[in-house]
Write a structure and sequence with these properties.
about 70 residues, mainly alpha, elongated
């Protein structure tokens, strides 16, 4: 194993597990560009519908701030 490969593995071991998907997507784009075929990801599956609280976030936070005083 080369020194470069050992350094890469050591750095990957430091990355939190919940962030590894970002690195995998980056690696996929690198390998896809070399191979010519691209994958399409459906990002809409991660979008949450707006809630009532989200639509009036400023008023909600102001209400929290005003109601914390006795």
């Amino acid at each position: 194993m080369t020194a470069l490969m050992q350094n890469i593995i050591a750095e990957l071991e430091r990355v939190p597990e919940d962030k590894l998907h970002v690195i995998m997507q980056f690696i996929d784009t690198l390998t896809d560009e070399a191979g010519g075929e691209r994958k399409n990801y459906n990002l809409e599956q991660f979008v949450m519908p707006p809630t009532e609280r989200g639509q009036d976030a400023d008023a909600y936070v102001r209400g929290l701030r005003n109601n914390d005083r006795f």
